[in-house]
Design a protein that fits this description.
The complex is a heterodimer of chains A (about 500) and B (about 210). Chain A has twelve helices and five strands. Chain A has about 500 residues and is of the alpha+beta class. Chain A folds into two domains: about 210 residues; about 150 residues, Heat Shock Protein 90 (2-Layer Sandwich), CATH 3.30.565.10. Chain A starts with 8 loop residues before the first helix and ends in a 7-residue tail after the last helix. In chain A, about 25% of the residues are buried. In chain B, helix 4 packs across helix 6 and helix 9 packs across helix 10. A six-stranded parallel beta sheet of chain B has the order 2-1-3-4-5-6, sandwiched between helices. Chain B has about 210 residues and is an alpha/beta fold. Helix content of chain B is about 55%, strand content about 15%. Chain B has ten helices and six strands. Chain B folds into two domains: about 140 residues, Response regulator (Rossmann fold, 3-Layer(aba) Sandwich), CATH 3.40.50; about 55 residues, Winged helix-like DNA-binding domain superfamily/Winged helix DNA-binding domain (Arc Repressor Mutant, subunit A, Orthogonal Bundle), CATH 1.10.10.10. Classes of the chains: A alpha+beta (about 500), B alpha/beta (about 210).
Chain lengths: ~500, ~210
C-alpha cells in the first residue's frame, strides 16, 4: 500500500479501470480467435465440396460420351454423333479446366497423386477418343467401335469413377475434421468465456475494494481526527503516509490543529493571568484589610471593660478603616465589571469613568479632559483591560489626593508604540511614596506597576511636590496591537 | 499576664500597613509588650533588627523586595538567637517546613492572629516553639508523605509554567524518557490525577512558588 499512496487518486482509479477493460478485451480476443479458426476450416470444406462437384461433372461427361458411342453403334448416325461429340468435347474440356482451377484452392485434394494423375490422363484422352470414334464411324468400322466401347472407353469410365470416389473420400475426411474442430471450439468457448467474465469480475472487485480502501481509510481517519478536535482533543494527529492528495489534506489538517492548539493555549494563558491578577488584588486589598481589622477588634475587646473610652476611639478608627477597605474593594470589583460590560473602546471607557469621578468628587471639581491622537487601532483585549485598570487607578488617586484643577488623559496610538498619559496640576506625590517605600496602599503604585509588567509595558511616574503629577504607560506596537507574528 | 519586669520588645514586619497597624494597636495595649519597630520588607526588617534588637520579631512571609524567608535566614545568620515568628495568609506544608528548618520559632496564620498573637508571642519569648493549629494539621497531613526530590521540584515548576515533557527535557538537558519517569513519580507522590492537578497541589502546599 505504500507506493500506492504516492500515486494521485486519479491515476489509481484510471489504472483500475484500464486493468478491467484490458481483461475484458483479452477475453473477447480469445473468443474471436477461436471463431476465426473455425471459419477457416469451414472455408476449406466449402472448397472441397466445390471440387467434388467439378469432378462429378467431368465424370458425367465421360459417362455421356460412353452412352453416345453406344447409341452410335445402334443408330449408325455418324453426322449426329459428330455434332454431339464436338459439343461434348468442348464442354468436357471446360469442365476439366474448371476442376483444375478449383483444385488449386484445395491442395489436400490436388496433392493426391492418384487424383492429379487421373485428371491429367483424362484431359487429353477423352478428346482423342472422340476423334478416333469419329474416324472409325466415317470409315464404317462398326466392329472396332464396339470393341473400343467395351475396352478403352470402359477403361476411361472406370478411371473417372475412381477419380470421383477418391475425391469424395477426401471431401469426407475434410468434413469429419471440420466437425471435430467445431466441436472443440464450442467446448473451448463454453469454458473460456465464462471464466474470462469471472476473472474480470473478480479483478474488478479486488481492485475496486483495494483502491477504494486507500481512499476511504485515510478519509475516515481524517473524520475521526476532526471529531476529536471538535471535542477539544488537540493532541490527536492524523497519521500521514505517501504524498497523494489525501496526504496533503492530512498534513494540512495536522497543521491547522496545531495552530488552533497554540491559539487556545494563549487565550487560556491570558485568562489564567487575569484570574491570578484578580486573586492578587483580592489578597492585597480585601484579605489584608480583614486581618488588620480583626486584630484591631481584638484590641477593642480587650480594652472594652477597663478602658472604655480608648475602646471607643479604637472602634471609630476601625469603622473608618473598614469603610475605606470597602471602597477599595468595590473599586477593584467595579474596575473589572466596568470593563467587561462596556464597549471595546478604551477612550470611551476612560472618559466615562473620568466624568463619573468628576461628578462624585468632593474636593472641588477639576476639569477632566480626554485627548486621543493618532489613528485608532484595536488593542489586544488583555492589554486594553490592564491599561484601563492602570488609568482608572491613576485617576482615582488624582481625584482623591491631588487636589488638582485640571486632569488630562492623553491616548496616543502611534505606529511604533502605544502611549497613555494621565496628567494633573495638583500637589504632587511625595518622593517617599514614589520610591516605593511605605506604600500606604492608597496610591496603588505597586499594583499599577504589576499590571504594566503583565502586558510588557513601561510605567513611568513623574511628580514634583507642588507642581503636579504625570503617569505614563508605554508599550511597543507588537505588544499592544498584536501583529500577525504572535509569539509562538 | 505578667506584670512588672521588662516588656517584651517586638518588631512587626509586614508590607500591608493595615496589618501592621492592627498588630501595633493590639500590642500597644498590653502592659508586658512594647512595639519597638516596624518594617515593610525584609531589608528594612534587617535594618530595624540591627538597631532595635527586638526580643520577638513578627515576620510576614510574602513581601516585595526581600521576602520573609530570606529575611529570616539573613537575620538568623547574624543573630543566631533571634526569635522570629512567621506570619502568613496561606498554609502550605512545604513552606512551613522550609521556615521551621530555617530557624523560625513559630508559624502563625493571619486569620487566627487576633486570638493567638499575644499568647504565642509570650510563649516564644519564654523559649517555646509555636505553630497555628491549621498549620500543624497541614504538616501532619503530609508528614509521612515522601517528599519530592530537588529534580522533581524543578520538573514540577516547569510543568506549572505550562511546558510539555519535550520542552522540559530540553530545558533541563535530560531525556524525554527521564522526564516522563519523573512526572510519574511526582503524580504518585502528590496523589495527583494529572499534570494540572499536580501543579495545583504544588502551588497550594508551597512546594513551588507562584
Amino acid at each position: 500500500m505504500f507506493h500506492q499512496s504516492d500515486l494521485r487518486i486519479g491515476v489509481r482509479l484510471t489504472a483500475c479501470f484500464l486493468t478491467i477493460v484490458v481483461l475484458m478485451i483479452g477475453a473477447d480476443a480469445v473468443a474471436i480467435w477461436q471463431l476465426r479458426e473455425m471459419a477457416a476450416h469451414t472455408e476449406m470444406l466449402n472448397t472441397a465440396d466445390k471440387a467434388s462437384s467439378a469432378i462429378v461433372r467431368v465424370h458425367l461427361d465421360v459417362n455421356s460420351f460412353s452412352r453416345k458411342v453406344a447409341r452410335l453403334t445402334r443408330s449408325r448416325d455418324t453426322d449426329q454423333f459428330a455434332k454431339e461429340a464436338a459439343l461434348l468435347r468442348a464442354t468436357f474440356l471446360q469442365h476439366v479446366r474448371d476442376a483444375e482451377q478449383i483444385l488449386t484452392s484445395s491442395p489436400e485434394i490436388a496433392q493426391d497423386a492418384f487424383i492429379s494423375s487421373a485428371l491429367k490422363t483424362l484431359k487429353p484422352t477423352l478428346p482423342s477418343q472422340i476423334d478416333a470414334e469419329i474416324e472409325l464411324a466415317s470409315a464404317g468400322d462398326w466392329a472396332a467401335i464396339q470393341l473400343r466401347l467395351t475396352g478403352q472407353i470402359q477403361d476411361l469410365l472406370d478411371l473417372s469413377s475412381s477419380l470421383v470416389e477418391s475425391v469424395e473420400e477426401r471431401v469426407f475426411r475434410r468434413r469429419t475434421t471440420v466437425n471435430q474442430e467445431t466441436e472443440r471450439v464450442r467446448h473451448r468457448l463454453f469454458i473460456i468465456v465464462p471464466v474470462a467474465w469471472l476473472l474480470s469480475l473478480f479483478a474488478a472487485a479486488i481492485l475496486g475494494w483495494y483502491v477504494t480502501g486507500t481512499i476511504i481509510v485515510p478519509l475516515s481517519k481524517l473524520t475521526t481526527a476532526a471529531q476529536a478536535l471538535a471535542r477539544g482533543d488537540f493532541g490527536h494527529e492524523v497519521s500521514v503516509g505517501g504524498s497523494d492528495e489525501l496526504a496533503v489534506l492530512g498534513n494540512a489538517f495536522n497543521h491547522a490543529a496545531r495552530q488552533l492548539h497554540n491559539q487556545f493555549e494563549m487565550t487560556l494563558e491570558a485568562r489564567v493571568a487575569e484570574r491570578t491578577r484578580i486573586a492578587r488584588e483580592l489578597h492585597d486589598t480585601l484579605l489584608q484589610s480583614f486581618h488588620g481589622v480583626l486584630l484591631r477588634l481584638q484590641t477593642v475587646s480587650q480594652l472594652l471593660r477597663e478602658r472604655p473610652e480608648e475602646a471607643q476611639d479604637e472602634l471609630d478608627n476601625i469603622i473608618e478603616q473598614v469603610a475605606e477597605a470597602i471602597t477599595e474593594g468595590r473599586n477593584a470589583v467595579q474596575g473589572l465589571r466596568e470593563f467587561t460590560v462596556q464597549s471595546s473602546d478604551l477612550a470611551l471607557a476612560i472618559s466615562t469613568f473620568g466624568e463619573e469621578l468628576t461628578t462624585r468628587s468632593e474636593n472641588g471639581q477639576p476639569v477632566f479632559r480626554l485627548a486621543v491622537e493618532g489613528e485608532f487601532r484595536d488593542l489586544l483585549p488583555v492589554v486594553r483591560e490592564e491599561i484601563y485598570g492602570i488609568t482608572a487607578e491613576a485617576l482615582r488617586n488624582t481625584f482623591r489626593h491631588a487636589e488638582a484643577r485640571r486632569v488630562e488623559v492623553e491616548i496616543r496610538y502611534e505606529q511604533e508604540q502605544f502611549r497613555l498619559r494621565v496628567r494633573d496640576d495638583g500637589k504632587g506625590i511625595e518622593p517617599a511614596i514614589l520610591s516605593g517605600r511605605g506604600g500606604e496602599g492608597h496610591y496603588g503604585l505597586p499594583g499599577m506597576q504589576e499590571r504594566a509588567k503583565l502586558i510588557g509595558a513601561k510605567l513611568t511616574v513623574r511628580s514634583n511636590v507642588g507642581s503636579g503629577t504625570e503617569i505614563e504607560v508605554c508599550l511597543p506596537a507588537s505588544a499592544a496591537y498584536g501583529t500577525a507574528q504572535r509569539r509562538s | 499576664m505578667s506584670t512588672g519586669g521588662p516588656r517584651i520588645r517586638i518588631l512587626a514586619v509586614d508590607d500591608h500597613p493595615i496589618v501592621r497597624q492592627g498588630i501595633a494597636r493590639l500590642v500597644g495595649i498590653q502592659p508586658d509588650m512594647i512595639l519597638v519597630g516596624e518594617a515593610s520588607n525584609g531589608r528594612e526588617a534587617m535594618q530595624q533588627f540591627r538597631t532595635q534588637h527586638p526580643d520577638v520579631t513578627l515576620m510576614d512571609l510574602q513581601m516585595p523586595e526581600m521576602n520573609g524567608l530570606d529575611a529570616l535566614i539573613a537575620i538568623r545568620n547574624e543573630f543566631p538567637d533571634a526569635r522570629i515568628i512567621m506570619l502568613t495568609t496561606y498554609v502550605g506544608d512545604a513552606q512551613i517546613l522550609r521556615a521551621l528548618k530555617a530557624g523560625a520559632q513559630g508559624y502563625l496564620l493571619k486569620n487566627t492572629l487576633h486570638k493567638e498573637l499575644l499568647d504565642r508571642i509570650r510563649a516564644v519569648h519564654a523559649g517555646r516553639k509555636t505553630i497555628s493549629a491549621d498549620a500543624s494539621y497541614e504538616l501532619t497531613e503530609h508528614a509521612t508523605d515522601e517528599a519530592l526530590t530537588q529534580a522533581e521540584v524543578r520538573v514540577l515548576r516547569l510543568i506549572a509554567a505550562g511546558n510539555a515533557n519535550k520542552e522540559i527535557a530540553e530545558q533541563l538537558s535530560i531525556s524525554e524518557e527521564t522526564v516522563k519517569g519523573q512526572v510519574r513519580n511526582i503524580l504518585s507522590k502528590l496523589g495527583a490525577k494529572d499534570r494540572t492537578h499536580a501543579a495545583m497541589i504544588g502551588l497550594k502546599r508551597g512546594i513551588i512558588d507562584a
